[in-house]
Structure formats: C-alpha cells, structure tokens
Amino acid sequence: MREVKIGINEAGQRFDKYLKKLLCEAPAGFLYKMLRKKNIVLNGKKAAGSELLKAGDTVKLFLSEETVEKFSGGAPLKKVSAGLRLPKIDLGSLPFSVLYEDDDILMIDKPAGMLSQKAKPDDVSANEYILAYLAAKGAYGGAGSAAFTPSVCNRLDRNTSGVLIAGKTLKGLQEMARQLKAREIEKIYLCAVRGTITEARRIKGFMRKGWEENKVCILQEAETKEDKPIETEYAPVENFRDASLLKVRLITGRTHQIRAHLASVGHPVIGDTKYGEGAPGRGHTLYLHAYRVCLADGRKAEAALPDSFLKLLEKLKKN
Q1: CA atoms of 7 and 166, how far apart (whole Å)
Q2: How far, in Å, CA of 82 to CA of 77, rounded?
Q3: What is the pTM for the complete model shown?
Q4: pLDDT tens digit string along 271-312?
Q5: Could you tell me which of 152, 252, 285 has the C-alpha nearest to residue 260?
Q6: Has 102 been annotated as catalytic?
Q7: CB of 30 within 8 A of CB of 44?
Q8: Are the CB atoms for 202 and 229 separated by under 8 Å?
Q9: pLDDT tens-digit map of 53-65
C-alpha cells in the first residue's frame, strides 16, 4: 500500500486527472476500475474521480509495489526534485528580485539576458531559477509530487527585463492562465524608441507569425485566418532629440508585439536588432522593460528600470 498526502501544489484539480499524472503509464480504464473496487481511495472512502482535491487530502493506493512501479516508474511517488537538474541558488544573492509572493503566485524582476523558459534542453531559464528558489525555501520538492510543477505564466523576450509571473500552485497557475486569456491583467511597459512622439495613440493591426525565422510581420488588414488582431496603446513620458520614452499598455499580448508594432509605425525600440536597429553585436541592450503588472484582484508588482536603461536616458538628455 502506498499513501500520498495532497499538498497545496496539487490542490484544486480533479482526482482522476491527478491519478493520471501520478500513475502516468496506467490506462484510464484501469484507474477507474481501481476506484470502483476501492483499491484507490480518497480520505479513506470510495471516490468517483470527479472530486476536487484539497490540501491535506489523503490518497491510498492498495496496489502491489510491482503495479505501482510498472505504471509510475517510481518517479511520480518520489520527491519532485528527483531527476531534475536545477541551478544552485543562494537565497541571499538571487539572480532576480522578488517583487511579490503569496501562497499561490510569485512575481519577479527578470533581468535582460535571461530566458523566461527553456529554448533548448540544456538552457537554464527563469523557470529553473524560480524552481530552485522555491526548492531552497522548501516550497517545492519533497513537500509535493510530480503531479504538479510550478511554472512561469507569461513570457518576456530574452532581452526584455521586468515583471514575470509564476504559478507556485495549480490554483495559482490556473487563475493566472484564466486572467491572461480573459485579458484581465494590465501589463505596462516602458521603452525608449526612435523619433519624437508628442501624443498618445492606440494602434491596431494584424500579426503574422513565421514571416521569417523567429520574427513576425505586421499587417493593416488580415489576409489569412492565421493573421491575428493586435492592439497597442502608448503615451509619451519624456521627449529627447529624435527619441522618446514611452509608456506602453498591451491590449492584446502576442509574440514581439510591442517591438514589431512600434517599428511598423516608424518608432523602433532602441537596441532592437530584429525590427529596425541594425546589428550591434553580441550582448546588446534592448530598451524595453515590463514595468508594472496589475492582476484583476488588485495584486500588483512594479520593477524599477535597470541601470543600463537609466544610463541611456541620461545620455539622451545630454544630446
């Protein structure tokens, strides 16, 4: 017999979906049969599988060790951290700043140059750093199971700095996904662009992915059903000689939207080699920063401009 305690990370999901992750190699028919025969019980009682799990619930598997090993490979019933290669992290010297944290979500200030999520198997991204941070705090690892792994909810380009949201629990991840899909999260960016902008505007268009490798194209009218509508709102914060600091609010939130949309109206983001600034070489700075995130329920986080951005503004003031 195996016994599993439901932690806060697993709470909120259907019991049958949890079992399908826990015994990932088991056919669905086998799991429902075991539920009917009370070989798998929830809190000591027969379960249908449609129950929503709560933190503190107990799952008992009256199965042979051979059956458990066969259908799980052993891994889902071991610590979450087993087999994962997380970077070493010092809680006193983090590679990011924690802007907001509660039981369900985490918002960090991602530095420019750090991926939000892996692009290749050997990458170390903000996602892995967040897992290492939570593991070091005891909020991820032995206290949970492989049925749920915390994860980032939104993405920022590698060279874009600022607020990144992560779900610490299934409840938090699902709620952030819902708010993002419903466009209930206000996302404010600051960026330095070419050209003098004196009036606020709300621009619309359509975006086509795959125009070139890892690049999008902005269209005024949709030409195919794959062309997706976009809306971007911006207002000048400060003007310089042939440059402006803008506050940008994303109405829609698509890949490279701010960079491509502003470039399409003649105002590329300074440092953007992909959409209009040439090719200055490795390690260039993109002056685009996710400044503020406000959730639908009032939770929010603000990330101060990085030093490199502040130095650019000082330089522009002197020109």
Answers
A1: 18
A2: 10
A3: 0.77
A4: 998 998 765 444 468 999 999 999 999 999 999 999 999 999
A5: 252
A6: no
A7: no
A8: no
A9: 998 899 999 998 7
